[in-house]
Amino acid sequence: MKGKNTLEKGFYLRFRRKEKRGRKGKMITPCGVYCSKECSFFNNGCSGCHEIKGKVFWAKHYGSDICPIYECVQERELKNCGHCSRLPCRLWFSTRDPSLGDEEFQKEIAFRLSNLEKERNS
After folding, report:
1. Distance (Å, rounded) from C-alpha 120 to C-alpha 114?
2. pTM score, two decimals?
């Protein structure tokens, strides 16, 4: 990892949750992460998925300039994945953070689904 910028070093940690949670007035990503509370890149090179139109640095690791999840939400004209009947879909699994073990990945999905459900119901 030597010689790579901070965002590159954190690629595999992009959705690590911070301790504090809350959704009041908070920006949520298409996949259910509250930017300012749960994304270590928010205001550290990223101004939010919607603001940067899904052009996250790590999308190149999936052969694209745009996050595949963001792109899907835009194509379907949805606010976020919480408004999709296919949730969680194959795209969520294909963009998995490879640093997470199976159990940790399942917890991460459950957490993001919970965020999306709260957002949908608010």
Report:
1. 10
2. 0.75
